[in-house]
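Review form for a predicted model. The reviewer records the input and the model, then writes brief findings.
Reviewer: anonymous (R2)
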Amino acid sequence: MPLKAELSKNNFLYLQFFIAETLGITLLELKNRMSMEELLSWNAYFELKNEREEKAYEDAKRGAQNRRLR
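Model under review:
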C-alpha cells in the first residue's frame, strides 16, 4: 500500500507525524522521547483545542450575522 494511503487510513500514525511536526522533531525522536500516555494526552489536547477554536469561529460568525441583520 502506498505510504500516503497508509497514512490516510492510520489515524494513530497521522497523529504521531502531526505531533512530531508540531514539536519540530523526527518521528523516530518522538517515538524515543515520548511515552504512549503523553502522546495520547497530546491527542486529547489537540482535539479539545480544535473544538474550542471551531466554537469560537461559529460564535464569531453568528455575531457577525446578527450585526448585519440589525
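Findings: The chain is about 85% helix and 0% strand.
Further findings: The two ends are 55 Å apart (CA to CA).
Recommendation: see findings above.
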